[in-house]
Amino acid sequence: MTAADGARASVREDPAVPTVPRIVACPDGPIVVRGDVEIVDDRGRPVPRRRRTVALCRCGGTTIPPYCDGTHKANGFSTAGC
Amino acid sequence: MTATVPAGLRTGMARPQPRGPLGALVWGALDRRPDEVDEEVRAALVTAARTAVASGDLLADDDVQLTLFVLYELHYRGVAGVDDAWEWDADLLRARGVLEAAFEEALRDRVEVPADVAADGRSVADALFALTAPGPGPSVARYVGRRADDDQLHEFLVHRSVYQLKEADPHTWAIPRLAGHAKAALVEIQADEYGGGTPGRMHSELFARTMHGAGLDATFGAYVDRVPAVTLAGVNAMSLFGLHRRLRGAIAGHLAAFEMTSSLPNRLYGDGFRRHGYGTATTEYFDEHVEADAVHEQIAARDLAGGLAEHEPELLPDILFGAAACLYLDDLVGEHVLGAWERGESSLRPAAAAARRAG
Ligand code: FES
Protein backbone atom coordinates (compact mmCIF):
# COMPACT_ATOMS: atom_id res chain seq x y z
CA MET A 1 0.00 0.00 0.00
CA THR A 2 1.39 3.41 -0.91
CA ALA A 3 1.25 6.44 1.36
CA ALA A 4 -1.43 7.93 -0.87
CA ASP A 5 -3.55 4.79 -0.50
CA GLY A 6 -3.19 5.05 3.26
CA ALA A 7 -4.41 8.65 3.24
CA ARG A 8 -7.41 7.68 1.14
CA ALA A 9 -8.24 4.73 3.39
CA SER A 10 -8.45 7.02 6.42
CA VAL A 11 -11.07 9.08 4.62
CA ARG A 12 -13.00 5.98 3.58
CA GLU A 13 -13.30 4.77 7.15
CA ASP A 14 -15.89 7.48 7.92
CA PRO A 15 -19.21 5.93 8.85
CA ALA A 16 -21.40 6.30 5.82
CA VAL A 17 -24.69 6.53 7.67
CA PRO A 18 -25.37 10.07 8.85
CA THR A 19 -28.12 9.09 11.30
CA VAL A 20 -25.53 8.27 13.94
CA PRO A 21 -24.61 11.53 15.69
CA ARG A 22 -20.97 12.38 15.29
CA ILE A 23 -18.78 14.54 17.49
CA VAL A 24 -15.47 15.84 16.18
CA ALA A 25 -12.91 17.25 18.61
CA CYS A 26 -11.14 19.86 16.47
CA PRO A 27 -7.49 20.38 17.41
CA ASP A 28 -7.04 23.80 19.08
CA GLY A 29 -10.70 24.52 18.43
CA PRO A 30 -14.31 23.67 19.15
CA ILE A 31 -16.25 20.44 19.29
CA VAL A 32 -18.24 20.00 16.10
CA VAL A 33 -21.54 18.17 16.55
CA ARG A 34 -23.36 16.60 13.62
CA GLY A 35 -26.63 14.74 13.77
CA ASP A 36 -29.55 14.36 16.08
CA VAL A 37 -28.26 15.45 19.47
CA GLU A 38 -30.27 17.49 21.97
CA ILE A 39 -28.32 20.47 23.25
CA VAL A 40 -29.68 21.72 26.58
CA ASP A 41 -28.54 24.12 29.30
CA ASP A 42 -27.81 23.16 32.91
CA ARG A 43 -31.56 23.12 33.67
CA GLY A 44 -32.38 20.91 30.74
CA ARG A 45 -33.85 23.70 28.61
CA PRO A 46 -33.10 23.34 24.91
CA VAL A 47 -30.48 25.74 23.59
CA PRO A 48 -31.63 27.39 20.35
CA ARG A 49 -30.05 25.56 17.43
CA ARG A 50 -30.12 27.32 14.09
CA ARG A 51 -28.18 24.84 11.96
CA ARG A 52 -27.74 21.13 11.48
CA THR A 53 -24.07 21.10 12.36
CA VAL A 54 -22.89 23.20 15.28
CA ALA A 55 -19.56 23.98 16.93
CA LEU A 56 -19.47 24.00 20.75
CA CYS A 57 -16.89 26.24 22.40
CA ARG A 58 -14.30 24.49 24.54
CA CYS A 59 -11.86 27.37 25.04
CA GLY A 60 -14.25 29.24 27.31
CA GLY A 61 -13.75 32.50 25.45
CA THR A 62 -16.77 32.62 23.18
CA THR A 63 -19.27 35.49 23.33
CA ILE A 64 -22.13 33.28 22.08
CA PRO A 65 -22.07 30.28 24.45
CA PRO A 66 -22.38 27.39 24.10
CA TYR A 67 -21.36 27.94 20.49
CA CYS A 68 -17.88 28.75 19.19
CA ASP A 69 -17.39 32.24 17.71
CA GLY A 70 -13.79 31.80 16.58
CA THR A 71 -12.32 33.47 19.70
CA HIS A 72 -10.14 30.39 20.32
CA LYS A 73 -7.95 31.61 17.44
CA ALA A 74 -7.27 34.90 19.21
CA ASN A 75 -6.81 33.71 22.80
CA GLY A 76 -4.06 31.15 22.28
CA PHE A 77 -6.26 28.14 23.10
CA SER A 78 -4.42 24.88 22.55
CA THR A 79 -5.55 21.29 22.88
CA ALA A 80 -1.96 20.04 22.83
CA GLY A 81 -2.10 19.06 26.53
CA CYS A 82 -5.64 17.68 26.48
CA MET B 1 -50.01 33.35 -4.03
CA THR B 2 -47.52 36.09 -4.71
CA ALA B 3 -44.07 35.31 -6.00
CA THR B 4 -41.52 34.71 -3.26
CA VAL B 5 -38.62 35.94 -5.36
CA PRO B 6 -37.83 39.55 -4.43
CA ALA B 7 -38.41 41.96 -7.32
CA GLY B 8 -34.72 42.77 -7.61
CA LEU B 9 -33.84 39.13 -8.22
CA ARG B 10 -36.27 38.42 -11.05
CA THR B 11 -34.23 39.77 -13.91
CA GLY B 12 -30.54 40.01 -14.58
CA MET B 13 -28.30 42.70 -13.22
CA ALA B 14 -28.71 46.15 -14.76
CA ARG B 15 -25.85 46.83 -17.11
CA PRO B 16 -23.19 49.07 -15.56
CA GLN B 17 -21.43 51.85 -17.48
CA PRO B 18 -18.38 50.59 -19.38
CA ARG B 19 -15.08 51.85 -17.99
CA GLY B 20 -12.96 51.76 -21.13
CA PRO B 21 -12.69 50.69 -24.77
CA LEU B 22 -12.97 46.97 -24.02
CA GLY B 23 -16.17 47.39 -22.04
CA ALA B 24 -17.65 49.70 -24.67
CA LEU B 25 -16.97 47.15 -27.42
CA VAL B 26 -18.28 44.18 -25.39
CA TRP B 27 -21.45 46.02 -24.32
CA GLY B 28 -22.01 47.01 -27.97
CA ALA B 29 -21.95 43.35 -28.95
CA LEU B 30 -24.14 42.28 -26.05
CA ASP B 31 -26.78 44.79 -27.17
CA ARG B 32 -27.52 42.46 -30.07
CA ARG B 33 -28.26 38.76 -30.38
CA PRO B 34 -25.16 36.62 -31.03
CA ASP B 35 -26.41 35.73 -34.54
CA GLU B 36 -26.59 39.45 -35.38
CA VAL B 37 -22.94 40.11 -34.61
CA ASP B 38 -20.59 39.77 -37.58
CA GLU B 39 -17.13 38.25 -37.79
CA GLU B 40 -15.39 41.61 -37.75
CA VAL B 41 -16.85 42.58 -34.37
CA ARG B 42 -16.18 39.08 -33.04
CA ALA B 43 -12.50 39.31 -34.00
CA ALA B 44 -12.33 42.80 -32.52
CA LEU B 45 -13.51 41.44 -29.15
CA VAL B 46 -10.48 39.21 -28.84
CA THR B 47 -8.12 41.91 -30.09
CA ALA B 48 -9.53 44.41 -27.61
CA ALA B 49 -9.12 41.89 -24.79
CA ARG B 50 -5.47 41.36 -25.77
CA THR B 51 -4.87 45.12 -25.84
CA ALA B 52 -6.57 45.60 -22.48
CA VAL B 53 -4.34 43.09 -20.69
CA ALA B 54 -1.13 44.15 -22.42
CA SER B 55 -0.13 46.74 -19.83
CA GLY B 56 -0.86 48.10 -16.39
CA ASP B 57 -1.95 46.53 -13.13
CA LEU B 58 -4.73 44.09 -14.04
CA LEU B 59 -6.02 43.84 -10.49
CA ALA B 60 -6.66 47.59 -10.46
CA ASP B 61 -7.76 47.89 -14.11
CA ASP B 62 -11.35 49.11 -14.16
CA ASP B 63 -12.01 48.21 -17.79
CA VAL B 64 -10.71 44.64 -17.42
CA GLN B 65 -12.26 43.87 -14.04
CA LEU B 66 -15.69 45.32 -14.85
CA THR B 67 -15.77 43.52 -18.21
CA LEU B 68 -14.87 40.23 -16.52
CA PHE B 69 -17.51 40.85 -13.88
CA VAL B 70 -20.22 41.35 -16.53
CA LEU B 71 -19.06 38.38 -18.61
CA TYR B 72 -19.14 36.15 -15.53
CA GLU B 73 -22.59 37.40 -14.62
CA LEU B 74 -23.87 35.74 -17.83
CA HIS B 75 -23.27 32.44 -15.98
CA TYR B 76 -25.13 33.50 -12.84
CA ARG B 77 -28.42 35.38 -13.12
CA GLY B 78 -27.65 37.16 -16.37
CA VAL B 79 -27.51 40.80 -17.38
CA ALA B 80 -30.68 42.74 -18.21
CA GLY B 81 -31.28 43.05 -21.93
CA VAL B 82 -28.53 40.58 -22.86
CA ASP B 83 -29.52 37.48 -24.83
CA ASP B 84 -28.95 34.32 -22.77
CA ALA B 85 -27.28 32.68 -25.78
CA TRP B 86 -24.20 34.86 -25.20
CA GLU B 87 -23.29 32.69 -22.20
CA TRP B 88 -21.84 30.01 -24.46
CA ASP B 89 -20.79 32.11 -27.44
CA ALA B 90 -17.38 30.79 -28.46
CA ASP B 91 -15.93 34.16 -29.50
CA LEU B 92 -17.08 35.90 -26.34
CA LEU B 93 -15.60 33.04 -24.30
CA ARG B 94 -12.36 33.38 -26.27
CA ALA B 95 -12.17 37.07 -25.37
CA ARG B 96 -12.95 36.22 -21.75
CA GLY B 97 -10.25 33.55 -21.88
CA VAL B 98 -7.68 36.21 -22.78
CA LEU B 99 -8.70 38.27 -19.74
CA GLU B 100 -8.76 35.20 -17.49
CA ALA B 101 -5.33 33.95 -18.55
CA ALA B 102 -3.80 37.33 -17.76
CA PHE B 103 -5.74 37.63 -14.50
CA GLU B 104 -4.67 34.19 -13.34
CA GLU B 105 -1.07 34.90 -14.31
CA ALA B 106 -1.10 38.16 -12.34
CA LEU B 107 -2.45 36.34 -9.29
CA ARG B 108 0.06 33.50 -9.55
CA ASP B 109 2.87 36.05 -9.90
CA ARG B 110 1.86 38.06 -6.89
CA VAL B 111 0.37 35.62 -4.41
CA GLU B 112 2.78 33.88 -2.06
CA VAL B 113 1.82 30.24 -1.53
CA PRO B 114 3.05 28.24 1.48
CA ALA B 115 5.43 25.45 0.46
CA ASP B 116 6.30 22.11 2.05
CA VAL B 117 2.81 21.22 3.23
CA ALA B 118 2.06 17.50 3.35
CA ALA B 119 -1.07 16.31 1.52
CA ASP B 120 -2.87 14.97 4.57
CA GLY B 121 -5.94 16.52 6.14
CA ARG B 122 -4.29 17.57 9.37
CA SER B 123 -1.29 19.23 7.71
CA VAL B 124 -3.49 21.07 5.24
CA ALA B 125 -5.80 22.33 8.00
CA ASP B 126 -2.80 23.41 10.10
CA ALA B 127 -1.31 25.27 7.13
CA LEU B 128 -4.61 27.02 6.44
CA PHE B 129 -5.12 28.01 10.08
CA ALA B 130 -1.58 29.40 10.14
CA LEU B 131 -2.15 31.31 6.90
CA THR B 132 -5.43 32.83 8.12
CA ALA B 133 -4.42 33.50 11.74
CA PRO B 134 -5.74 36.90 12.86
CA GLY B 135 -3.00 39.53 12.68
CA PRO B 136 -2.54 42.57 14.90
CA GLY B 137 -2.44 45.09 12.04
CA PRO B 138 -5.12 47.56 10.98
CA SER B 139 -8.16 46.02 9.37
CA VAL B 140 -11.42 47.13 7.84
CA ALA B 141 -13.19 45.07 10.50
CA ARG B 142 -11.54 46.92 13.37
CA TYR B 143 -12.17 50.26 11.66
CA VAL B 144 -15.83 49.43 11.03
CA GLY B 145 -16.23 48.13 14.58
CA ARG B 146 -14.74 51.14 16.34
CA ARG B 147 -14.39 54.20 14.13
CA ALA B 148 -16.43 54.15 10.94
CA ASP B 149 -19.03 56.89 10.54
CA ASP B 150 -22.45 56.19 9.07
CA ASP B 151 -21.38 57.06 5.50
CA GLN B 152 -18.46 54.65 5.80
CA LEU B 153 -20.80 51.89 7.00
CA HIS B 154 -22.84 52.47 3.85
CA GLU B 155 -19.70 52.32 1.71
CA PHE B 156 -18.74 49.07 3.40
CA LEU B 157 -22.11 47.54 2.45
CA VAL B 158 -21.82 48.81 -1.12
CA HIS B 159 -18.43 47.12 -1.58
CA ARG B 160 -19.80 43.92 -0.08
CA SER B 161 -22.99 43.98 -2.14
CA VAL B 162 -21.30 42.89 -5.37
CA TYR B 163 -20.64 39.53 -3.75
CA GLN B 164 -22.86 39.11 -0.72
CA LEU B 165 -26.11 39.45 -2.69
CA LYS B 166 -25.06 36.27 -4.50
CA GLU B 167 -23.18 34.86 -1.53
CA ALA B 168 -22.01 31.26 -1.91
CA ASP B 169 -22.85 31.00 -5.62
CA PRO B 170 -19.28 30.99 -7.01
CA HIS B 171 -18.24 28.13 -4.72
CA THR B 172 -21.32 26.10 -5.63
CA TRP B 173 -19.85 25.58 -9.11
CA ALA B 174 -17.35 23.21 -7.46
CA ILE B 175 -19.92 20.73 -6.13
CA PRO B 176 -20.21 18.50 -9.23
CA ARG B 177 -16.44 18.69 -9.68
CA LEU B 178 -15.61 17.11 -6.33
CA ALA B 179 -16.23 13.64 -4.93
CA GLY B 180 -16.49 11.86 -1.62
CA HIS B 181 -15.50 13.55 1.62
CA ALA B 182 -14.72 16.95 0.06
CA LYS B 183 -17.99 17.06 -1.89
CA ALA B 184 -20.05 16.19 1.19
CA ALA B 185 -18.24 18.90 3.16
CA LEU B 186 -18.90 21.51 0.49
CA VAL B 187 -22.56 20.58 0.31
CA GLU B 188 -22.83 20.80 4.10
CA ILE B 189 -21.42 24.35 4.07
CA GLN B 190 -23.41 25.49 1.06
CA ALA B 191 -26.69 24.10 2.44
CA ASP B 192 -26.16 26.32 5.48
CA GLU B 193 -25.25 29.29 3.24
CA TYR B 194 -28.53 28.79 1.40
CA GLY B 195 -30.50 28.86 4.64
CA GLY B 196 -30.93 25.10 5.04
CA GLY B 197 -33.84 25.26 2.60
CA THR B 198 -35.54 28.35 4.10
CA PRO B 199 -35.39 31.21 1.57
CA GLY B 200 -35.47 33.95 4.21
CA ARG B 201 -32.44 32.41 5.94
CA MET B 202 -30.28 32.39 2.81
CA HIS B 203 -27.22 34.48 3.56
CA SER B 204 -27.79 36.53 0.43
CA GLU B 205 -31.25 37.42 1.72
CA LEU B 206 -29.97 38.24 5.19
CA PHE B 207 -27.53 40.62 3.50
CA ALA B 208 -30.37 42.16 1.50
CA ARG B 209 -32.15 42.84 4.81
CA THR B 210 -29.02 44.50 6.15
CA MET B 211 -28.92 46.75 3.08
CA HIS B 212 -32.59 47.60 3.45
CA GLY B 213 -32.00 48.35 7.12
CA ALA B 214 -29.35 50.85 6.07
CA GLY B 215 -31.68 52.38 3.46
CA LEU B 216 -29.77 50.93 0.50
CA ASP B 217 -31.03 49.29 -2.69
CA ALA B 218 -30.58 45.51 -2.36
CA THR B 219 -31.02 44.76 -6.07
CA PHE B 220 -28.00 42.77 -7.25
CA GLY B 221 -25.65 45.05 -9.14
CA ALA B 222 -27.39 48.30 -8.15
CA TYR B 223 -24.06 49.79 -7.05
CA VAL B 224 -21.60 48.18 -9.46
CA ASP B 225 -20.88 51.58 -11.02
CA ARG B 226 -19.62 52.80 -7.63
CA VAL B 227 -17.38 49.83 -6.90
CA PRO B 228 -13.68 50.05 -7.80
CA ALA B 229 -11.75 47.46 -9.81
CA VAL B 230 -9.98 46.04 -6.77
CA THR B 231 -13.29 45.02 -5.17
CA LEU B 232 -14.51 43.48 -8.43
CA ALA B 233 -11.22 41.57 -8.73
CA GLY B 234 -12.01 39.77 -5.48
CA VAL B 235 -15.35 38.57 -6.83
CA ASN B 236 -13.91 37.77 -10.26
CA ALA B 237 -11.28 35.53 -8.68
CA MET B 238 -14.05 33.44 -7.15
CA SER B 239 -15.81 33.13 -10.51
CA LEU B 240 -12.54 32.27 -12.24
CA PHE B 241 -11.76 29.53 -9.72
CA GLY B 242 -15.35 28.30 -9.59
CA LEU B 243 -16.03 28.11 -13.32
CA HIS B 244 -12.92 26.13 -14.30
CA ARG B 245 -12.80 22.50 -13.22
CA ARG B 246 -9.03 22.74 -13.60
CA LEU B 247 -9.06 25.20 -10.68
CA ARG B 248 -11.28 23.16 -8.32
CA GLY B 249 -8.43 23.06 -5.81
CA ALA B 250 -8.25 26.84 -5.83
CA ILE B 251 -11.99 27.35 -5.27
CA ALA B 252 -11.91 24.88 -2.36
CA GLY B 253 -8.94 26.70 -0.84
CA HIS B 254 -10.63 30.04 -1.47
CA LEU B 255 -13.75 29.00 0.40
CA ALA B 256 -11.67 27.69 3.29
CA ALA B 257 -9.76 30.97 3.63
CA PHE B 258 -12.97 32.97 3.25
CA GLU B 259 -14.72 31.05 6.03
CA MET B 260 -11.62 31.07 8.23
CA THR B 261 -11.41 34.87 8.17
CA SER B 262 -15.07 35.53 8.79
CA SER B 263 -16.27 34.89 12.37
CA LEU B 264 -14.12 37.42 14.19
CA PRO B 265 -14.50 40.24 11.59
CA ASN B 266 -18.28 39.74 11.47
CA ARG B 267 -18.50 40.36 15.20
CA LEU B 268 -16.76 43.70 14.63
CA TYR B 269 -18.96 44.58 11.65
CA GLY B 270 -22.01 43.93 13.80
CA ASP B 271 -20.50 46.12 16.54
CA GLY B 272 -20.07 48.95 14.05
CA PHE B 273 -23.73 48.90 13.07
CA ARG B 274 -24.90 48.51 16.68
CA ARG B 275 -22.72 51.49 17.62
CA HIS B 276 -24.74 53.60 15.17
CA GLY B 277 -28.04 52.36 16.57
CA TYR B 278 -29.02 49.87 13.87
CA GLY B 279 -31.32 47.11 15.12
CA THR B 280 -31.12 43.36 15.02
CA ALA B 281 -32.77 43.06 11.59
CA THR B 282 -29.82 44.99 10.17
CA THR B 283 -27.12 43.23 12.19
CA GLU B 284 -28.57 39.72 11.89
CA TYR B 285 -26.44 38.99 8.82
CA PHE B 286 -23.25 39.65 10.80
CA ASP B 287 -24.46 37.85 13.93
CA GLU B 288 -25.41 34.82 11.84
CA HIS B 289 -21.92 34.73 10.33
CA VAL B 290 -20.18 34.82 13.70
CA GLU B 291 -21.82 31.51 14.58
CA ALA B 292 -22.12 29.92 11.15
CA ASP B 293 -18.58 30.57 10.00
CA ALA B 294 -17.06 29.25 13.23
CA VAL B 295 -18.64 25.94 12.12
CA HIS B 296 -17.88 26.38 8.44
CA GLU B 297 -14.21 27.10 9.00
CA GLN B 298 -13.70 23.74 10.68
CA ILE B 299 -15.54 21.88 7.92
CA ALA B 300 -13.84 23.89 5.17
CA ALA B 301 -10.31 23.50 6.50
CA ARG B 302 -10.48 19.87 7.59
CA ASP B 303 -13.09 18.12 5.46
CA LEU B 304 -13.21 20.23 2.29
CA ALA B 305 -9.61 21.39 1.81
CA GLY B 306 -8.05 18.57 3.84
CA GLY B 307 -10.34 15.94 2.34
CA LEU B 308 -9.66 17.17 -1.19
CA ALA B 309 -5.90 17.13 -0.63
CA GLU B 310 -6.14 13.53 0.51
CA HIS B 311 -8.29 12.47 -2.45
CA GLU B 312 -6.39 14.45 -5.06
CA PRO B 313 -2.93 15.26 -3.66
CA GLU B 314 -1.87 16.87 -6.94
CA LEU B 315 -4.36 19.68 -6.18
CA LEU B 316 -2.65 20.70 -2.95
CA PRO B 317 -0.63 23.59 -4.47
CA ASP B 318 -3.84 25.02 -5.95
CA ILE B 319 -5.76 24.58 -2.70
CA LEU B 320 -3.12 26.70 -0.98
CA PHE B 321 -2.99 29.12 -3.92
CA GLY B 322 -6.76 29.67 -3.77
CA ALA B 323 -6.57 30.34 -0.04
CA ALA B 324 -3.63 32.71 -0.37
CA ALA B 325 -5.27 34.50 -3.32
CA CYS B 326 -8.41 35.06 -1.25
CA LEU B 327 -6.36 36.67 1.51
CA TYR B 328 -4.23 38.67 -0.91
CA LEU B 329 -7.22 40.17 -2.70
CA ASP B 330 -8.97 40.85 0.59
CA ASP B 331 -5.87 42.72 1.76
CA LEU B 332 -5.82 44.79 -1.44
CA VAL B 333 -9.43 45.84 -0.89
CA GLY B 334 -8.64 46.56 2.77
CA GLU B 335 -5.68 48.77 1.86
CA HIS B 336 -7.76 50.64 -0.66
CA VAL B 337 -10.70 51.21 1.68
CA LEU B 338 -8.66 52.09 4.78
CA GLY B 339 -6.35 54.31 2.72
CA ALA B 340 -9.30 56.32 1.43
CA TRP B 341 -10.98 56.53 4.84
CA GLU B 342 -7.78 57.61 6.60
CA ARG B 343 -7.46 60.42 4.04
CA GLY B 344 -11.05 61.41 4.71
CA GLU B 345 -12.10 60.36 1.21
CA SER B 346 -14.71 58.00 -0.16
CA SER B 347 -13.52 54.49 -1.06
CA LEU B 348 -16.10 54.33 -3.84
CA ARG B 349 -16.01 55.68 -7.36
CA PRO B 350 -17.74 59.05 -7.50
CA ALA B 351 -21.46 58.86 -8.21
CA ALA B 352 -21.13 61.86 -10.53
CA ALA B 353 -18.57 60.12 -12.73
CA ALA B 354 -20.81 57.12 -13.12
CA ALA B 355 -23.79 59.34 -13.92
CA ARG B 356 -21.84 61.46 -16.40
CA ARG B 357 -20.84 58.43 -18.41
CA ALA B 358 -24.45 57.31 -18.38
CA GLY B 359 -25.48 60.58 -20.09
S1 FES C 1 -13.62 27.03 20.96
FE1 FES C 1 -14.02 28.55 19.50
S2 FES C 1 -14.49 30.27 20.71
FE2 FES C 1 -14.06 28.74 22.19
UniProtKB/TrEMBL annotation, chain A:
Keywords attached to this entry: 2Fe-2S, Iron, Iron-sulfur, Metal-binding
Domain Iron-binding zinc finger CDGSH type: from-to ranges: 38-78
Keyword Iron-sulfur: yes
A Pfam family reported for this protein in Swiss-Prot or TrEMBL: zf-CDGSH
Protein name: CDGSH iron-sulfur domain-containing protein
Gene source species: Cellulomonas alba
TrEMBL record, chain B:
Record SUPFAM superfamilies: Heme oxygenase-like
Domain of life, source organism: Bacteria
InterPro entries: Haem_Oase-like_multi-hlx
Protein name: Iron-containing redox enzyme family protein
